[in-house]
Amino acid sequence: MKNLEFAISRFAICSEPLECSPYGNGHINSTFLLVCDDNGNRRRYILQSVNTNVFKKPEQVMQNIEKVTEYLRPGAKEHREIMTLIPTKDGKSCYVDEDGKCWRIYDFIEDSICLEHPESTEDFRQCAVAFGKFQRDLSRFPADSLFETIPDFHNTPKRFADFLQAVENDAVGRAAFVKEEIQFLKDRVDFYSVLYNANKAGVLPLRVTHNDTKSNNVMLDAKTRKALCVIDLDTIMPGFSVTDFGDAIRFGASTAAEDEKDLSKVSLDLEMFDIYTKGYLEGCGGQLSREEIMLMPEGAKMMTIECGMRFLTDYLNGDTYFKTAYAEHNLDRCHTQLKLVADMEEKWDEMKKIVEKYI
Ligand code: ADP
Ligand code: GN1
Ligand code: MG
Prior knowledge:
Elements: H1 2-9, E1 16-22, E2 30-38, E3 41-50, H2 58-72, E4 85-86, E5 95-96, E6 102-107, E7 112-114, H3 121-137, H4 156-169, H5 179-187, H6 194-200, E8 207-209, E9 218-221, E10 227-230, E11 237-239, H7 241-252, H8 270-284, H9 290-294, H10 296-317, H11 329-346, H12 348-357
Bound molecules: adenosine-5'-diphosphate (ADP), 2-acetamido-2-deoxy-1-O-phosphono-alpha-D-glucopyranose and magnesium ion (MG).
Adenosine-5'-diphosphate is lined by residues 23-24, 26-29, 31, 46, 83, 106, 108-109, 114, 216-217, 231-232, 234.
């Protein structure tokens, strides 16, 4: 708590801190809701400490965020549409404390909601258009001015190699209990290079992408429920449009939560898949080529299997990466992702037909 108070005191907020409490459901950073007294009014902020186990160079993360938000700000119709960093008293975008923890403060996006799961097809469509627009608005942003904040973030072949290494190391003796899951991932080895091969063949360009397109990374206006702001900008890096599309599908078009224990509840909702495809392409405003659109089902399956692989790798490594609430949390998350992959394989022809409608 002392650290927290000291960190807050380093920022140029012209109001008195009243309360500060843990906030949100992110798996990576520590997020707090900070309430201050601003001349008798309660003013809210989001205080975060960036996870430096995940982001080894947090100052590069902050530079990316500064560049992208300043690039996008002139196009915004209102303040709430773009994340706003509060500077420290010495004009920096974050404060690094004695323990090397990197703190930052954002303006709270007021009168908004953030959905763990879309509550309607329209909510999901709003997220799709927002991430599509984000892609379109950054289409002329100089990608080479961005740091790669997590190298090989969506490099699935590299993720698979890391996974095999975790199986071999078996750091906490869990490998023997997850033989079926390991086999499931090994059986699909040929699939992992599909997007990289398409890139090499010149049909899948590198673009500036968000790379973490879960529906809880979009704020919707509380009254109109229209998309307001794309948040969680830590992983903006060069990437593929179809992986931004795919990560949103794996999370939002699943019929169950990412950590649902009852796997009979987990499947791909084809109506949601259709709605997101249409909304994302609409948001992208004609930027994507025919070949990219054709690869959208591959993007969805790739992000789902990669995420399942990442959860299992972390489980095998002893839960050192993702925040977990209980011992088998990463394994439960892995199971939902593998179930979803199996369901996508069943529905593959239908997924392909849906994207073809929009070419
Ligand atoms: P993580 O990387 O851990 O997912 P996020 O940046 O996504 O962290 O923040 C976690 C949660 O905090 C979000 O899902 C959202 O509910 C909330 N949040 C983050 N930034 C803001 C903001 N500027 N205004 C309102 N809520 C926010
Ligand atoms: C993490 O930070 P959060 O919860 O939005 C992770 C994503 C995973 C996701 C799985 C930096 O996202 O890559 O897809 O969990 N972020 C990072 O829910 O690893
Ligand atoms: Mg998040």
